[in-house]
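Sample entry (177 residues):
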Amino acid sequence: MSRQSDFDLPVAEPIRLILSDVDGVMTTGQLWFDAAGGEIKQFHVRDGMAVKIWQTAGMQFGIVSSRNSPAVTRRAAEIGVSHVLQGVDPKLPAVIELLGSLGVPPDQVAYIGDDLPDLPVMRHVGLSAAPADACDDVLAEVTWVMRTGGGCGAIRELVERLMRATSTWEAHATPLA
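Predicted structure, serialized as tokens:
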């Protein structure tokens, strides 16, 4: 019997860059504001670990959001993400510009998103993915639907699935001694 990774290999093998939406993917999509009007976001620690493992394997990770958030800037810095596009609406032109500057063709890119503004980017890249709780229009079009919801480890699931398909997870996810 074939393992899931055997079926994933053809689509996973060329991927060198993962781009992710924020609200609804890296977070649950809920917007929280404190009494002073500051924004509060909750990120899943395993998503951050997965991004670090992905980058340790020599791959790149980027964030694409139509909103601006100091919390996203801070989280990106904490997990070592240098490709951060915020306040981009529509997203596709900014993504095309980023790919050009990095010299990464679209077929080597995975994008994970959850809502309508993500669809143009998803249609442009080699692998599209969505958290389990993405909107129906997105779920109908993506290559992979994660079992987990946004903000609940969907990035971890995507990274692990990509790396297991290419037999690189075990080599890079070994606990530190």
